[in-house]
Amino acid sequence: MTASEAPRVITRRGWISIALVLTVLAAVIATVAHASPAVRRQLSLSFTRQPDHFAELFFRDPSRLPSHYTTGQTLPVSFVVTNVRSTTQRYQYAVRADVRGGVQTLKRGTLSIGANATRQLSVSIVPPRHTTKITVRLLGQQRLSVHFLLSEEKS
User: Fold this and answer.
1) With the C-alpha atoms ordered 42, 47, 48, 54, is the resulting torsion angle positive or negative?
2) Burial label, 26 (beta-carbon count in 10 A; 0-12, 13-18, 19+)
3) Residue 60 near residue 78 (C-beta atoms within 8 A)
4) What average pLDDT does the structure give for the chain?
5) What DSSP line would sit under 41-110, residue for residue?
6) pTM, entire model
């Protein structure tokens, strides 16, 4: 190994220079972060646990959902909404039928659910002729939906 190929050794003076550059860089970053509300907020969100903010929508027992109907027949539909928030929330829902050529709203409503609570709701609907699918949807920000298929029995 020749003298020009010898590994470089960082001297004490080199370490001091590196430490000085890193300190100045950290000070600049801290100044920018302190001056910018958006950066402060993002740092706060990054380093602190945030509460969960969502809802759940499901059929408790999908095997008990109707699969056939006769025109004019009333069908029961039960669904469950869980509020996974630390405050009471109001949810708007709609029960819709997919009918040949479009969608028809059969029921609309609002339900209030306490913090971290679950609520089951049962509604009665009368599907119009040629209904192929029933959808339960939470309206607003959540935009959650569940559905089941139907076939019409000829009478």
Assistant:
1) positive
2) exposed
3) yes
4) 88
5) HHHHHHHSPPPP-EEEEE-S-GGGS--EE-TT--EEEEEEEEEESSS-EEEEEEEEEEETTEEEEEEEEE
6) 0.67
